[in-house]
Backbone:
């Protein structure tokens, strides 16, 4: 388990390197999908099954699908994947940077610091995260109202930003 | 600093560096923003899980709601700039310089 | 834009700032900032021309980056200390990150590049909201950080006053000049933040009054560059006589109320044994004064070549409401005699 968790953490950082190194958008979207999947794995490993499910359904299933769709619309004739030279330079720079910084902290990490907290706990029916959702619906009224209002507001914002029949590429300003 | 803490901090800073340095497409800048929000979501969830604090485990979900709002607004702006500028390359956003 | 939608957006803009004011928990403060950003975006892009859209996009990218960096700083603080309260920041690393994030949010000097460009793309009323109301929520957070990173704040403040003066020198666009003036004023506020938060608040208050009247004057005259200013005497002669005084008040000349914050800040810095910093700040204010003087010159001392019918629009009644402008311009010019009262109220 410890081995898998460290592999997941390693993959998380490497996935962000893949996103940040300026490839074409659909490769970046692919990298982000991998990162989100690994994030689900990390959360499950730490005992947050419900949060992991939320991440999988909302983030991966809701938002990243839209991003992948937009990336597919923005296709370009000569895409740059991670193999091409300028992207490779960025990847190398980022990896070297991460390795150097982690070298600073390497001495402080020992065997048990990789162990997720959840492995040391006992098996219980009521997990912290799903209990927290019940608590959010029971006592977190104000926050829920604010979040719902913001989601509604975003609908207006998106409609206002994109609406208009006469707003093509050619028109009088 | 535990390895977990280091991992999500590194992920966030990589996303920030990717956003700040060279971006060709607006869409990949938005993807970097999403990567930053994802690492923040993981950080908040792991914090509540490690401390077993039931009270704060709603905060990752609220964060996810807000980051969904941000993402959709970003995509709406992508559509708007593609309409006005004809492309989503960040180099073409130079009307306001002087 | 539909008036109901725009009313909803304005109310939500107020809601975001209010949430940030009321919060003692970092997460809620972050939510307030996000609501604020989301609500102003359609107002910025309401005319949908390419420059407005581009300004909206630039504003969105910087604000989203700043907000997520802010949340990262607070999450790091929670991992290191286990604290979410705004008042309980003790570790220096989150404090530094947080200060940098807020500097990006309000546009302090090394992170200021977006502000002139964004302001240039907006109409003057939205620009007014952008340079006054949008500064309130970040300042409410900055004022609550107690063990501030003092070197960083001094560096940010000095760089802002310098660049705010320097960048405005070569501009002919009024909105860019106002953006640089905003950067310089924010630099003065940040300079004194760690010594006397009350003084920062006073400076912010006076800055808002002066910027409010300046934007309204330019809006009244429909002026977006210096050339247009030369014809304002044909539209509103009385206001044209007052506007140079208003600009000099922004520059901080003695008999006007803009002098009060600069005077008190210089006094406070000298008291803290920072005579060199105070001298540098006062010298960089001269750079800002140069472009305020140039605007005043174009307004009051030049005659634009004009045909006879062009000199008569001052007979027409303006349909705009003048009372807010009258109040704010009076306050922006004549508040200096209140200085002893203000000092007595602020520093008990």
Residues:
């Amino acid at each position: 388990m410890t081995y898998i968790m460290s592999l997941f953490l390693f993959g998380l950082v490497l996935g962000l390197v893949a996103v940040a190194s300026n490839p074409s958008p659909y490769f970046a979207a692919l990298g982000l999908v991998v990162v989100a999947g690994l994030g689900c794995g990390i959360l499950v490993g730490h005992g947050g099954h419900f949060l992991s499910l939320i991440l999988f359904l909302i983030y991966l299933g809701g938002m990243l699908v839209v991003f992948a769709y937009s990336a597919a619309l923005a296709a370009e004739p000569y895409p740059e994947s991670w193999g091409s030279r300028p992207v490779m330079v960025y990847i190398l720079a980022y990896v070297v940077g991460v390795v150097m910084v982690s070298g600073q902290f390497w001495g402080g990490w020992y065997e048990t610091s990789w162990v997720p907290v959840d492995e040391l706990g006992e098996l219980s029916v009521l997990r912290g995260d799903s209990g927290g959702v019940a608590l959010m619906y029971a006592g977190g009224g104000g926050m829920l109202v604010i979040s719902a209002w913001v989601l509604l507001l975003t609908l207006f914002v998106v409609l206002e930003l994109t609406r208009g029949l006469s707003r093509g590429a050619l028109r009088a300003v | 600093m535990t390895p977990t803490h280091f991992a999500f901090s590194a992920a966030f800073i990589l996303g920030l560096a990717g956003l700040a340095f060279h971006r060709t497409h607006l869409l990949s800048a938005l993807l970097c923003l999403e990567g930053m929000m994802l690492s923040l979501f993981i950080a908040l969830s792991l914090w509540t899980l490690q401390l077993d604090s039931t009270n704060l485990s709603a905060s990752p979900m609220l964060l996810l709601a807000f980051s969904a709002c941000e993402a959709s607004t970003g995509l709406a702006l992508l559509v708007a700039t593609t309409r006005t500028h004809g492309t989503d390359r960040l180099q073409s956003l130079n009307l306001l310089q002087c | 834009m539909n008036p109901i939608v725009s009313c909803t957006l304005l109310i939500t803009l107020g809601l975001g700032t209010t949430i940030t004011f009321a919060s003692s928990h970092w997460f809620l403060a972050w939510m307030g900032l996000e609501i604020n950003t989301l609500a102003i975006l359609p107002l910025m892009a309401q005319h949908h021309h390419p420059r407005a859209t581009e300004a909206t996009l630039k504003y969105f990218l910087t604000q989203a980056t700043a907000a997520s960096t802010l949340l990262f700083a607070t999450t790091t603080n929670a991992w290191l200390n286990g604290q979410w309260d705004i008042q309980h920041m003790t570790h220096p690393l989150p404090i530094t990150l947080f200060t940098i994030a807020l500097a990006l949010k309000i546009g302090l000097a090394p992170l200021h590049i977006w502000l002139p460009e964004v302001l240039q793309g907006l109409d003057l009323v939205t620009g007014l909201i952008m340079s006054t109301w949008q500064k309130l929520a970040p300042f409410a957070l900055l004022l609550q950080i107690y063990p501030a990173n003092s070197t960083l704040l001094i560096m940010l403040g000095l760089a802002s006053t310098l660049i705010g003066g320097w960048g405005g020198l070569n501009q002919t666009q009024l909105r860019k000049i106002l953006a640089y003036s905003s950067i310089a004023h924010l630099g003065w506020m940040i300079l004194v933040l760690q010594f006397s938060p009350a003084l920062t608040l006073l400076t912010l208050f006076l800055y808002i009054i002066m910027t409010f009247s300046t934007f309204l004057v330019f809006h009244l005259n429909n002026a977006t560059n210096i050339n247009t200013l030369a014809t304002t005497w044909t539209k509103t002669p009385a206001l044209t006589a007052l506007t140079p005084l208003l600009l000099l008040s922004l520059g901080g000349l003695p008999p006007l109320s803009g002098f009060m914050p600069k005077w008190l800040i210089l006094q406070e810095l000298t008291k803290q044994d920072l005579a060199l910093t105070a001298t540098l700040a006062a010298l960089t204010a001269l750079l800002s004064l140069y472009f305020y003087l140039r605007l005043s010159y174009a307004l009051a001392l030049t005659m634009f070549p004009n045909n006879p019918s062009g000199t008569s629009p001052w007979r027409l009644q303006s349909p705009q409401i003048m009372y807010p402008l009258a109040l704010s311009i009076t306050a922006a010019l004549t508040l200096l005699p209140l200085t002893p009262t203000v000092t007595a109220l602020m520093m008990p």
In short: Chain A has a mean pLDDT of 81. Residues 21 and 90 of chain A are 5 Å apart (CA to CA).
